[in-house]
C-alpha cells in the first residue's frame, strides 16, 4: 500500500487509513438523515458504557454534521483495535481487549445476534464474529499481500444492512411506510423515529426502547426485557406487558412451556401471554450453531472454513471457542404480564413479607400442580405486583420438571450464588435440587434484605 507508515503506530495508521482507505470503503450519502462512517475514538472514552473504554477505529451510525461530537456505545456497529506490531496478532491480550469492547456493544445493543470486530496488528488484519457462545476468528490477512480481502472486509462492514450486522430480524419498525429491521444505532441518533414492534401469536406489540433488564456479557443467555403494549394503544397508555428475549441453552427446558401451564389469576405467578423460538426472515430458527455460525458472508465465513485458532489460555478460553466446545443456544421470546416492580420497592416490612408469601405460594403451586422446580430463587426474581396480590415469582429459566428422565444440560450448579442452598453449594447432583432448597433460598432473600436494607428498601450498612 502506498503511504503505509514505516512505523505502524496508531496515529500514523489512522492518518493513512483516512487518507487512502476511507474514501474507498465508506462513501458518504448526500442529503441523508444519517450515515455510516469509520470514526477514530481518539483519547475520549465512549459514553453510555459499563466501564471507561474506547475503541481505536469504530464503524458508527451518526447524523451528518456531528463529526466533532463524542461517540456513544449505542452508535457503534463494528469495533476495531489497532496494534503497532504484527507479532501481537492472535495473542490473548489483543483478543481480550477487543472482547471488552464487544461486551459494551452487547450491553448497549442486546438485540444483537452477533457483533463483528477486527484487529489490525501492524499490517496483519483478523476479523472476529462474537456471539452468545463465544467467538470465531478468520485467518490472518496480510493487507499488502491481500489488499482486495482487506478492502472487501471494511467495505462489507459499511454496506451491511441491519440483519447482516447482527440485529434481530423480528424486531421491526415502519420509517417510510415499509417495514424494516429495527436498528438501534440509527434510533439512538434519531430518537424521534417510530418505536419498534414485534408480532407474536397474531398480535402486534409496540416496544419501549429503554430496557428493563439487560446484561453486559458475551457468552451468556443475553437476557433482555422490554416494556410493551398493544400496537394501536394511545401514545400515553401504560406499558402493560413484558417481552423477554434470551439465548437459552439448546438442551434446557423452555421457560414459556412451564408458564403456559399456569391458569390466569394464580397467586404468586405472572400471567402467560405467548412464547416462541425466534426465526429469521428466511424462516430459519435463530440459533448459534445454524443461523449465526452458519450464516456465511465474505467477511464472516462459517466455522467449517476456518483453521484452528491459536492455543487458548485461561483468560480467553470461555470466549474464543472451537467447534467441539460450542454450546448451541436458541433465541427464545416470552411475553407475559404484569409489569412488576423490584422487591426492594416495598413500602413496609409487612408489604415485603406479603410479597414473599405470595411468591412462595406461586412456587408451591408450580411444584404441586405442575411438577416444576424453580432452582433460582433470588432477590431479583421476586417482584412486587402493581395491584393485588402483593408479589410474584419470575424467571423460570433454570427450572426443571421433576418428571424429566434426563439431566438438564447445564454445565454448572444452578442458582444465584448469594441465595443458593448450602446443599446445592456443596455440589449436589443437578437434578437433585428440590423445592426445599428453593425455600432455603427464599429465607436468604429475606435475610439479605433484613441485614442490608431498611424498612423503605434503602441500602444501609449491616
TrEMBL record:
This enzyme's EC code(s): 2.7.11.1
Q: Which domain of life is it from?
A: Eukaryota
Q: State the InterPro entries in the record.
A: Kinase-like_dom_sf (IPR011009), Pkinase_fungal (IPR040976), Prot_kinase_dom (IPR000719), Tyr_kinase_AS (IPR008266)
What the entry lists under Pfam families is as follows: Pkinase_fungal
Protein kinase domain: which residues?
210-462
Catalytic function, reaction form: L-seryl-[protein] + ATP = O-phospho-L-seryl-[protein] + ADP + H(+); L-threonyl-[protein] + ATP = O-phospho-L-threonyl-[protein] + ADP + H(+)
Molecular-function annotations in GO: ATP binding; protein serine/threonine kinase activity
- Quaternary structure note: Component of the EKC/KEOPS complex composed of at least BUD32, CGI121, GON7, KAE1 and PCC1; the whole complex dimerizes.
Q: What does this protein do?
A: Component of the EKC/KEOPS complex that is required for the formation of a threonylcarbamoyl group on adenosine at position 37 (t(6)A37) in tRNAs that read codons beginning with adenine. The complex is probably involved in the transfer of the threonylcarbamoyl moiety of threonylcarbamoyl-AMP (TC-AMP) to the N6 group of A37. BUD32 has ATPase activity in the context of the EKC/KEOPS complex and likely plays a supporting role to the catalytic subunit KAE1. The EKC/KEOPS complex also promotes both telomere uncapping and telomere elongation.
Q: What is this protein called?
A: EKC/KEOPS complex subunit BUD32
Q: Which organism is it from?
A: Sphaerosporella brunnea
The opening ranks of the lineage are: Eukaryota, Fungi, Dikarya, Ascomycota, Pezizomycotina
Amino acid at each position: 500500500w502506498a503511504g503505509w507508515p514505516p512505523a505502524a503506530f496508531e496515529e500514523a495508521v489512522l492518518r493513512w487509513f483516512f487518507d487512502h482507505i476511507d474514501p474507498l470503503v465508506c462513501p458518504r450519502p448526500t442529503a441523508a438523515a444519517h450515515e455510516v462512517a469509520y470514526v477514530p475514538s481518539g483519547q475520549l472514552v465512549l459514553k453510555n458504557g459499563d466501564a471507561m473504554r474506547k475503541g481505536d477505529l469504530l464503524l458508527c451510525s451518526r447524523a451528518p454534521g456531528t463529526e466533532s461530537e463524542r461517540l456513544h456505545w449505542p452508535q457503534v456497529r463494528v469495533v476495531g483495535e489497532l496494534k503497532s506490531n504484527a507479532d501481537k496478532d492472535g495473542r490473548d491480550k489483543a483478543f481480550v481487549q477487543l472482547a471488552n469492547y464487544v461486551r459494551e456493544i452487547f450491553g448497549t445493543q442486546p438485540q444483537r445476534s452477533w457483533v463483528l470486530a477486527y484487529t489490525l496488528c501492524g499490517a496483519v488484519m483478523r476479523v472476529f464474529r462474537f456471539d452468545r457462545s463465544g467467538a470465531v476468528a478468520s485467518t490472518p490477512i496480510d493487507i499488502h499481500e491481500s489488499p482486495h480481502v482487506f478492502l472487501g472486509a471494511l467495505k462489507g462492514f459499511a454496506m451491511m444492512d441491519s440483519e447482516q450486522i447482527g440485529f434481530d430480524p423480528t424486531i421491526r419498525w415502519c420509517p417510510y411506510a415499509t417495514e424494516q429491521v429495527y436498528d438501534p444505532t440509527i434510533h439512538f441518533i434519531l430518537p424521534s423515529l417510530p418505536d419498534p414492534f414485534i408480532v407474536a401469536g397474531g398480535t402486534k406489540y409496540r416496544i419501549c426502547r429503554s430496557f428493563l433488564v439487560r446484561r453486559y456479557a458475551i457468552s451468556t443467555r443475553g437476557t433482555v426485557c422490554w416494556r410493551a403494549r398493544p400496537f394501536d394503544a394511545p401514545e400515553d397508555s401504560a406499558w402493560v406487558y413484558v417481552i423477554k428475549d434470551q439465548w437459552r441453552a439448546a438442551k434446557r427446558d423452555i421457560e414459556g412451556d412451564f408458564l403456559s401451564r399456569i391458569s390466569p389469576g394464580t397467586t404468586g405467578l405472572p400471567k402467560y401471554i405467548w412464547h416462541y423460538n425466534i426465526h429469521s426472515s428466511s424462516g430459519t430458527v435463530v440459533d448459534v450453531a445454524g443461523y449465526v455460525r452458519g450464516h456465511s458472508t465474505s467477511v464472516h465465513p462459517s466455522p467449517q472454513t476456518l483453521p484452528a485458532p491459536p492455543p487458548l489460555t485461561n483468560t480467553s478460553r470461555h470466549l474464543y471457542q472451537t467447534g467441539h466446545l460450542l454450546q448451541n443456544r436458541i433465541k427464545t421470546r416470552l411475553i407475559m404480564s404484569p409489569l412488576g416492580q423490584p422487591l426492594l420497592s416495598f413500602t413496609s416490612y409487612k408489604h415485603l413479607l406479603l410479597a414473599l408469601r405470595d411468591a412462595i405460594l406461586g412456587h408451591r403451586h408450580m411444584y404441586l400442580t405442575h411438577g416444576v422446580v424453580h432452582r433460582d430463587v433470588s432477590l431479583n426474581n421476586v417482584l412486587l405486583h402493581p395491584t393485588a396480590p402483593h408479589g410474584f415469582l419470575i424467571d423460570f429459566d433454570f427450572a426443571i420438571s421433576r418428571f424429566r428422565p434426563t439431566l438438564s444440560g447445564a454445565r454448572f450448579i444452578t442458582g444465584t450464588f448469594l441465595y443458593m442452598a448450602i446443599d446445592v453449594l456443596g455440589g449436589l447432583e443437578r437434578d437433585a435440587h428440590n423445592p426445599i432448597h428453593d425455600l432455603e433460598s427464599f429465607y436468604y432473600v429475606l435475610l439479605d434484605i433484613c441485614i442490608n436494607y431498611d424498612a423503605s428498601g434503602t441500602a444501609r450498612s449491616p
